[in-house]
């Protein structure tokens, strides 16, 4: 316990040594070293616009959910960063730095820009569909599926694409097809709005998902329902 | 010089406004208010609008000091909204357009809010949070469309507030949202409520059913006051709205926020959004109740933009629709 106390006391000093690589809406992300390894430190800082109780409860919940979901995925063989340490006072997660990787978002953008072999992207979305099916079969709802939250490890050829899922801050556990459908809906919207003219590519992703998941038909049915909700809802005012 | 008259009545507010080249010449409005505990139904709302619309029309012309001949175009709300009230107003607009021999323009209600917000605040290219009784959307302009980046996947935030007001019988005069805001100022105890952000989207029906259920228990056992409930509900709902707005801003790289729609009048929401903007070095734009709440001038303003870019609605196309997505409209007046 004394050891963890001294580590807890020095979390801020780890952050000082580390290099901030991103400031998102939710958290600051740093690259640093911890116990001899290269790590990513995700620090959820307080949001001043929120009532302090809302903020504390929400931040703590998101940190906990993120770590639990990552662990659950890893146990099921789905690629997610290894979690080394979590500090609940500063809401920091110390996790594995996935080196030599590029976000699927950047990869698709550069592939489309260079008009590379479309077959290559097809294999990629097949893999994405598979990994999401695996995740949903574990009843993990990612909650913020976007192509920025999937990493493609370089040096892997088409036969052995290695995808790593990250950013599980909005994740939770649920067996409901509704929640899985909404999860896919979030990805669909993010995918199509970020990558223009990729409707057929996304359809292929869903086909791969359907083929890989044991519980997919109910989920796809819910996805269809959720898609219609935006249009069917009575809009007054 | 272009003068446009706009007719708006998609919900319980009936407003007619006149705009001349960016100047609001008149903007009278009436609100159909129901007793506490009751919402407004389409048939009765339409009846209310029918009973006052001609009076409001005369007021609009008198205040502007104009006659029918001075008008260049008649704009009306094509949708979205409630069927019967929309029809009532459209009929008057069509009739007036034909009587006066002026072109008609069917306007998207959401775009009316956005264009009025842009006119009044002069914001350049903001991320727009459109929040009202019927709509909750985060919108950004891109390539001739007002694209929806995030929205509610079930009910609107204003609808959540209005229905909560009914549960504890808060007065609907001048609006349930306004009364919840006043009561919230006196609330001190924070009651934990579900917080449901789903990526860039939000969901409110869960919070509503939770608070509808919990309200009675909490109030009868004296664990909290109605003011505490109002306070807690606002803090939770508004935090969710600020969060999805911030996400959209981060996604688009935007440095401006514009809040439009009836719920945009809420000063606490504006305050919270302001804090978020300050942290990011972004600018916040908001309007007051004259333009936040549904009004005729906003339809006139959107109509003015559309008319000047060469659009016109043929009589045969001047129907109304309850469902009309913001991104369905081609924004021909912007690059």
Task: Kindly describe this structure.
Chain A: It is an enzyme of class 2 (transferase). Chain A: Its main location: nucleus. Chain A: Belongs to the protein kinase superfamily. BUD32 family. Chain A: It catalyses: L-threonyl-[protein] + ATP = O-phospho-L-threonyl-[protein] + ADP + H(+); L-seryl-[protein] + ATP = O-phospho-L-seryl-[protein] + ADP + H(+). The complex is a heterodimer of chains A (237) and B (335). By secondary structure, chain A is an alpha+beta fold. Chain A is 50% helix and 19% strand. The longest helix of chain A has 24 residues, at 52-75. The N and C termini of chain A lie far apart (57 Å). In chain B, β12, α8 (267-280) and β13 (283-286) form a beta-alpha-beta unit. The chains are: A alpha+beta (237), B alpha/beta (335). At the A-B interface, α3, α6 and α8 of A face β9, β10, α7 and α8 of B.
Instruction: Tell me the radius of gyration of chain A.
Output: 19 Å
Largest sheet composition of chain B: 6 strands, mixed
First-last Cα distance of chain A: 57 Å
* Low-pLDDT residue spans of chain B: none
Shape of chain B: globular
Number of helices of chain B: 10
Question: What Rg of chain B is obtained from the alpha carbons, in whole angstroms?
Answer: 20 Å
β-strand percent of chain B reads 15-25%
* Quaternary class: heterodimer
Enumerate how many helices of chain A there are, as a single number.
8
Report the count of strand segments of chain A.
Answer: 10
Q: Give the DSSP E fraction of chain A (strand runs of 2 or more residues).
A: 15-25%
Principal-axes shape call of chain A: globular
Distance between the termini of chain B: 22 Å
Biggest sheet statistics of chain A: 5 strands, antiparallel
Outline the low-pLDDT stretches of chain A.
Answer: none
Most extensive interface between two protein chains, with residue counts: A-B, 33 and 52 residues
- How many strand segments of chain B? 13
How helix-rich are the residues of chain B, as a percent range?
A: 40-55%
Mean pLDDT of chain A: 88
What is the N-to-C order of secondary-structure elements of chain A (H for helix, E for strand)?
A: HHEEEHEEEHHEEEEHHH
């Amino acid at each position: 316990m004394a050891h963890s106390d001294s580590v807890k006391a020095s979390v801020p000093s780890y952050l000082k040594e580390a290099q901030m690589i991103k400031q998102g809406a939710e958290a600051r992300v740093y690259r640093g070293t911890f116990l001899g390894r290269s790590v990513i430190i995700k620090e959820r800082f307080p949001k001043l616009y929120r009532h302090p109780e809302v903020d504390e409860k929400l931040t703590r919940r998101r940190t906990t959910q993120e770590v639990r979901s990552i662990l659950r995925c890893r146990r099921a063989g789905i690629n997610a960063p290894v979690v080394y340490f979590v500090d609940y006072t500063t809401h920091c997660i110390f996790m594995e730095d996935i080196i030599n990787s590029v976000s699927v978002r950047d990869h698709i953008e550069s592939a489309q820009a260079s008009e590379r072999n479309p077959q290559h992207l097809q294999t990629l979305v097949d893999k994405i569909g598979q990994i999401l099916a695996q995740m949903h079969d574990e009843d993990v709802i990612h909650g913020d599926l976007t192509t920025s939250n999937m990493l493609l490890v370089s040096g892997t050829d088409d036969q052995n694409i290695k995808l790593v899922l990250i950013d599980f801050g909005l994740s939770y556990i649920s067996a409901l097809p509704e929640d899985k459908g909404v999860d896919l809906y979030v990805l669909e919207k993010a995918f199509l709005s970020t990558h223009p003219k990729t409707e057929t590519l996304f359809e292929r992703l869903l086909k791969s998902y359907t083929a890989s998941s044991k519980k997919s038909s109910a989920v796809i049915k819910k996805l269809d329902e959720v898609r219609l909700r935006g249009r069917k809802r009575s809009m007054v005012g | 010089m272009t003068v446009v008259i706009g007719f708006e009545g998609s919900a319980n507010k009936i407003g007619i406004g006149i705009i001349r080249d960016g100047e609001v010449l008149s903007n009278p409005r009436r609100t159909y208010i129901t007793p506490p505990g009751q919402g407004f139904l389409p048939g009765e709302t339409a009846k209310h609008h029918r009973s006052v619309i001609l009076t409001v029309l005369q007021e609009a012309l008198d205040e502007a000091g104009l006659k029918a001949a001075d008008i260049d175009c008649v704009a009306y709300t094509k949708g979205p909204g409630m069927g019967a009230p929309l029809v009532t107003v459209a009929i008057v607009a069509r009739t007036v357009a034909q009587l006066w021999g002026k072109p008609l323009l069917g306007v998207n209600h959401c775009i009316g809010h956005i264009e009025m917000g842009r006119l009044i605040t002069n914001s350049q290219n903001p991320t727009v949070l459109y929040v009202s009784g019927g709509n909750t959307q985060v919108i950004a302009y891109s390539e001739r469309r007002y694209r929806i980046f995030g929205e509610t996947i079930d009910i609107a935030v204003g609808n959540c507030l209005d229905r909560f007001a009914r549960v504890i019988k808060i007065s609907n005069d001048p609006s349930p949202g306004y009364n919840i805001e006043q009561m919230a100022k006196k609330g001190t105890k924070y009651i934990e409520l579900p917080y449901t952000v789903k990526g860039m989207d939000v969901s409110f029906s869960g919070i509503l059913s939770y608070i509808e259920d919990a309200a009675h228990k909490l109030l009868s056992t004296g664990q909290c006051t109605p003011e505490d409930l109002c306070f807690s509900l606002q803090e939770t709902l508004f935090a969710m709205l600020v969060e999805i707005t911030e996400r959209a801003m981060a996604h688009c790289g935007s440095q401006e926020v514009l809040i439009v729609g009836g719920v945009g009048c809420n000063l606490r929401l504006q305050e919270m959004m302001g804090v978020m903007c300050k942290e990011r070095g972004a600018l916040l734009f908001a309007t007051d109740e004259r333009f936040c709440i549904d009004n005729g001038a906003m339809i006139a303003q959107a109509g003015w933009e559309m008319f000047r870019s060469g659009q016109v609605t043929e009589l045969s196309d001047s129907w109304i629709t309850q469902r009309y997505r913001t991104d369905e409209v081609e924004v021909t007046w912007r690059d």
